[in-house]
Amino acid sequence: MKTKTLAQVDGILGIIVGAVLAILPVVIVMIAAISDNEDLAGFVLGVVFLVFTLVKIATLILGILTLVYYKDDKRISLAPSILFIVGSGVALIPFLGWIGGIILIIGGALYLSSLKHFQIEG
């Protein structure tokens, strides 16, 4: 019996990571604009890029894992996993991270909407 915990985690992470990726370009421009110390701003932006590259790769791996985990389960369609894979792939392309973020939000919402198909067993 497949658990719904993985779908819940995917849904929540998809929405949170997608929202952050969607607003990340604005945050980067704000950091660069208000910074007085160019070296510190460069270091902070480098860390932000590194962390979010790792997050994008993690969501890509999560999409692949859930695609394999739920492949024979009728309660969850293939669409959310495919959206996670495509959204993460698009987000890895420079200057397209916000589009990938929007795709991840949609995938996360689909995961959360599929939770109603899970029955509580008692």
Characterization of the model:
With 122 residues, the protein is mainly alpha-helical. The protein has helices at 5-34, 38-69, 79-91, 97-113. The chain is elongated and about 55 Å long. The protein starts with a helix and ends in a 9-residue tail after the last helix.
Main sheet specs:
none
Q: Report the order of strands and helices.
A: HHHH
Q: Poorly predicted ranges (pLDDT <50, ≥5 residues)?
A: none
Strand content: under 5%
Helical/strand content category: mainly alpha
For the residues shown, what is the average pLDDT?
A: 88
Q: What is the CA–CA distance across the termini?
A: 14 Å
- Our count of helices gives 4
Q: Based on the structure, what is the oligomeric state of the protein chains?
A: single chain
| Helical amount | over 70%
Brief synopsis:
The protein has 122 residues and is mainly alpha-helical.
Write out key terms for the chains shown:
single chain; 122 residues; mainly alpha
Secondary structure layout:
Blueprint: H1 5-34, H2 38-69, H3 79-91, H4 97-113
